[in-house]
Amino acid sequence: MRIVIQGAGAVGSHLAKMLRDEGNDITIIDNDEARLTKLTSSIDVRAVQGNPSSTLILKKAGVDKCDLFIAVYPSTQQETNIVGALLAKRLGADKVLARVNDEEYLSPDNKLMFNELGIELLFYPERIAADEIVSQLKRTTSSETMEFAHGQLQISLFKLDENSPLLDLKLSEFTEQLSKEEREQFRIIAISRSNSTIIPGAGTVFQYNDMVFTFSRQEGVSLLVKYFGQSTLQVQKVMIVGGNEIAAMLAAELHLLGIKVKLIEIDHERCLKLSEKLDDDIEVVNGDGRNSDLLYDEGINECEAFVALTGSDETNVLTCVVAKKMGVPRTVAEVENTEYIRLAEEMGVDYVINKKLITAANIYRFTLGGKARFVKYMRGSNAEVIEYTAEEGSPITKKAIKDISFPNGAIIGGILRGQDAFIAVGDTLIQAGDRVAVFAVPDSVKAVDKLFR
Hints:
By secondary structure, the protein is an alpha/beta fold. It has 16 helices and 22 strands. The protein has helices at residues 10-21, 33-40, 55-61, 78-91, 108-117, 125-137, 171-176, 180-183, 221-227, 245-256, 268-277, 292-297, 313-325, 341-346, 355-364, 445-451; strands spanning 2-6, 25-30, 46-49, 68-71, 95-99, 121-123, 144-148, 153-159, 186-193, 196-198, 211-217, 237-241, 260-265, 283-286, 305-308, 330-334, 351-353, 372-377, 384-389, 410-417, 420-423, 435-440. Strands 3-2-1-4-5-6 form a 6-stranded parallel β-sheet, with helices on both faces. A 6-stranded parallel β-sheet has the order 14-13-12-15-16-17, sandwiched between helices. The longest helix has 14 residues, at 78-91.
């Protein structure tokens, strides 16, 4: 696929690397020579320097022949992204996407208007990040969960601590404990261990600190909580450190859910703006969230959740560690350096949010031939969760799952057929029109994609 990316910032560079690793032909446009030099020194992509809103530069980049155009200039240059996307569409780009930094653009009327103008997707990473955090804080367990079909099917991530009942058990030993009815409620689909993702076999042994991915029907969630030794929690009070846009949107959304919020921000001017913007019931405190005495004085020990959203990955991770030591059951940290994500998880952070990965998940489905409904990255793994719709006559519909040469790095979790949701097993025969959830490492995605075409 020929892809042109407008903007070589953090998001654009991450997308370029990810999409190039999938074998796509990538061209990236930026007017900053230093950013382009840094990118091309580590990734085999074509760079075009110049004004991203210039039709001459866009033509030089080959937008008239590209399959996908992605406008991801920094959020301060929103107009550049929209203009670039509109011009790319008029010049002949097949599909165009644009990053925005104003929720007004995401209203149904505005999204429809831009869609009619030819922009297939507008995305606001900060809004998506806030929604992701809210989704996790609403969970009664600390596991990360992704829903399919309004919750009828779910993928959950459980971390095995020293008290987990699964430790040192083989997968086969665990499944032998289950009744036939229980086996129909969920299945274990992957394990993340020491920076690698394992599709487990019968002899795979569960180890301390393993991150275990499960696929379940809605009715199977309570069974998973029991077998993984998870406790339930209802979040009623949240402390947020950092006053960026994600924090502001998160605070407002949690308040609407009836959750009490206290936000701590070190910059006085930013505090004043937040106080004017947010509801009066949301308490905004001017102070340094790295100060544990301040956190204690502000009642951190009374909170069920702590969210760190400062501009420093190190601060976010370390303050979450402090919060854990002070008794907070659930912690969330924004970590933009992907190399720190695993470290943060090993240090006890319950949930890591990364805007680059969120953006990639929203964009990646446009490279999968239109057969994928959505894609999401799960923390602790380089794997993707992809929902496909089986096409009439596609290879995946020809045989039972056990008889299909499915890639080693992928596994089918569950299937939605009409209003019926069920867990996939070896004898399952996928039918045309089925919505199928697949867990796959990057190297196997292309092979999986072909099975559904």
